[in-house]
């Protein structure tokens, strides 16, 4: 790539160059997939520095993931010096940074913690019990959804109560508002904020304390937002406030790629940009540099079927290329094997594994594909799978760390006070919590006072010992590097001993904890985190999106760099790969069942998602579907996605060897909900499955947990693990070798 100089913009086409040369005032770059929006944005940043002399420390770019932010910084760094001073961030990370610096102005106490989805549920469960209109059958998740949605719209509990809907997600409006209200009080008492707060509290800070806004604006005189079509109301407002003084705001996006409505994203934000900024310059990019012409034609044709859209032109720059193909496999296993076969074949033709990606609608689809790949030893990297940071042992250790930093974190305390067991049982804990409530203090303070204040009848010293342990950890937090501190926590808490006694399963968990220490070590070595504390590490860990490297690495330990990428269509946004497989192109998966039930706007959102998937492909696009698919342990007949009809004639239907065959289209009109709930056993087509003790779906019995059903299987032979749902004990993950299961 070229260096700073007058001809920096030569690497762009004329319209891209105009947009990149945009200096002051608002601007909108609106264009289809692969048209160079992100590239233009990076060049614009470099051009601001190299040509207009803007200091990098005055430039902010907001991206959708931390990974995208890091890449953008790196790419800008190749073009101009000083990129290290750029502020590249997601909305959430920007919120954390602002609130950590200035949060005290709006009453946030120092050392607040960030609560994730699970922590939210913990508080919700606690507060929902006593609210009229909320029954025992109400799922805490529903309430969390209401709260998150309210926050993405910047609604307070009172706003929610004033809305006109009598019911919100099935709950009476006032009950929903009351749950939200109590949740806020509890959360605040624990000195915690949730993900939504990272944006809403920053907005509140800016509105209530103009002096702070002004200071932050000095670091964001030129603001950029990538993927603007997926911003929600709160992010929109944050952007508006930040840009209100200098008005140098450049946003880029594609309304056809808006795929996060379910998380509150509002496509209207990009469509109304010109209303909000009547003087905005609009740049439309009309050439697609990414995909071969055949792939692009399919994408264009598909998206034309959406009615709620802005018509755009997108012309190919590349040649026709290879035909797009569609293969219908007999079942989900055969589908996986087909993909594996093609990967092997393409690799043999010289494709690096890392040039190829497999995209699917739901994470649940990845397991069978992974198995097919593993069987023929294709290295794979799964993005956003079973979260490493969601594992019990990881969450436990991080909860200790959180509590050490923030003694008010009752959620963390409840999580770990019995891991390992310390002789503080349920009754004792209830008493401690009760005392804390009446004395308006934390449960940890109650523990510290257990003996003196006679809070517990018996075993008060156990509670004071625990408080002492946490005090030692607090002290260590100030003195140790993140990795060393985590080691200290693992050892002194007795957690390592606990796992050492747990045999094989404990061994796996020990390895995961080792991985956590390595992750912290690596984090500290990163240039951006020099001198960073454990608190900073926890912030970053809390904000990891599923595609971020720190996460992907931990989840794929041992996977080589050169590996095939497996991810959901959602996670693939903004990325590109020479070869893309989209699997499960079936009615009920893509579009999803939920979207079909929702009707036209649900279908259009899914069509955008499919559009995102197709437009990731640079050279080859291979689509597959299964005729029979196992879901939740049952195999049902599946039908091709109706979206295939949208692009009929633009792809070849092929047999297992890739040879064209006649396409037996089931058209959208002919489509009927599948009748045959007839559970047909899938023929065992793969030689390897013979080795598998379990394939999923079996009814089993466990000596302790009772009867259950196998939901998922991972690994083979000695190392096979099964996920079993037990009627009485819930879902458990077990090593087959040690679990003592009997098939029923
Ligand atoms: P998406 O909508 O998927 O986010 P995008 O509009 O952001 O796509 P980019 O990712 O910026 O598109 O660009 C797509 C590909 O085309 C990249 O590989 C990029 O380097 C290349 N590209 C874009 N513009 C040009 C150009 N003028 N010359 C050469 N390559 C280009
Ligand atoms: Mg982009």
TrEMBL record:
Keywords: ATP-binding, DNA-binding, Helicase, Hydrolase, Isomerase, Metal-binding, Nucleotide-binding. Mg(2+) 3 binds at residue 396. Gene3D superfamilies: 1.10.10.160, P-loop containing nucleotide triphosphate hydrolases (3.40.50.300), PCRA, domain 4 (1.10.486.10). Residues 10-292 form the UvrD-like helicase ATP-binding domain. It is an enzyme of class 5 (isomerase). Pfam families: PcrA_UvrD_tudor, UvrD-helicase, UvrD_C. Signal peptide: none annotated. Mg(2+) 1 binds at residue 38. This is DNA 3'-5' helicase.
